[in-house]
Design a protein that fits this description.
Blueprint (H helix, E strand, L loop, with lengths): L24 E5 L5 E4 L5 H7 L17 E6 L2 E2 L10 E3 L4 E2 L3 E4 L2
Parallel strand pairs: 1-7
Antiparallel strand pairs: 1-2, 3-5, 3-7, 4-6
């Protein structure tokens, strides 16, 4: 058993932010050629998972980075607290500013 006095736990929470209302967009997975509709009330992560393209995710809040995707075309709306590098986005919290995104899946 691990000694309790040696255990260190950190929990992170996203900073509260305000965004425009969610709108529908589509995402094309370049490797499969499949285009998936993402409705306003669903995350990109969930839409991809339901369509058979599961993406790893840890926190589901935009603070861990495990749901990172490579964006090949389109303009993502970054809603994460990490600061996605150019050409990347986090599927759980981010959406699209353009009507369509193309991702490397």
């Amino acid at each position: 058993m691990f000694p309790a006095e040696r255990l260190h736990v950190e929990r992170f929470r996203p900073v509260a932010k305000t965004f425009a209302p969610d709108t529908a967009f589509e995402v094309t997975c370049v490797r499969s050629g499949q285009t998936i509709q993402v409705p306003p009330d669903e995350s990109l992560l969930d839409a991809l998972t339901y369509a058979g393209h599961p993406v790893p995710s840890g926190c589901r809040e935009g603070v861990c980075g495990s749901c990172e995707l490579t964006v090949l075309d389109g303009e993502p709306e970054h809603r994460d607290d990490i600061g996605a590098p150019a050409g990347r986005m986090y599927a759980r919290v981010s959406r699209a500013l353009s009507p369509r995104l193309v991702v490397d899946l």
